[in-house]
Amino acid sequence: MMLANKIAVIYGAGGSIGGAVAKAFAQEGARVFLAGRTQSSLDTVAKHILALGGKAETAIVDALDEKAITQFTDAVITQAGRIDISFNAIGLEDVQGIPIVEMTLKDFLQPVQIAMQTQFLTAKAAGKHMIQQKGGVILSITATPAGKAYALVGGFGPACSALEGFSRNLADELGPHGVRVVGIRSAGSPDSAVFLNALEQEAKGTEPYNFIKDLEDDTMLKRLPLMAEIASTAVFLASDRASGMTGTFANVTCGTTRD
Fold first, then answer.
1. SS3 category, 2
2. Residue 34: which CATH number?
């Protein structure tokens, strides 16, 4: 197994992508610590993992609260002895579909603020321990607006770009200590809760519009990456098989953006 005996913490583990990655990590042998704001969502993921013989534990953690994050990571270290992988997949609460010239400052800045605050705090907490143990992987996820201009995405595009820039700088700082900082750039998964909810809302509209078809047409493969594809990429990046990779984002956009 690619992650045998690894200790992984996943923020936003009750969400679609966080949960999918947590399950994939556990399937590959990692002991996963699931962090999130909703116990029932975390329990659903944990029960799935435990039913398949994996190892999973849950904790309510506000991934925007420095004290809560520090207490959580310290507790994991006390319990498991180390943190090998830290993955942050919390939602950015972005507002889209509104022209920038019509947006409020609050709505524009919200995803940028959340992305930078949570990634800074969780990477800082994990990085301190990883420096001491001389190894580890800090993993994050962005989306196509980090590499391509899109109208009507508000602050989401700048948030993705900022996150990728932050990760590159962090990789340069932590690299000498044996710590890798990598990420995944996704085109969005049609089987995720975000897309399924959007489709449900779209169906209630008066005018039919297939936004997923537009996104698919924008890719080279004419489809979008499924959550399983994102999760398998996360496993690879977190594993020793990707030991030569840092300061970069794996492109899983089905050809929407190029490197």
1. coil
2. 3.40.50.720
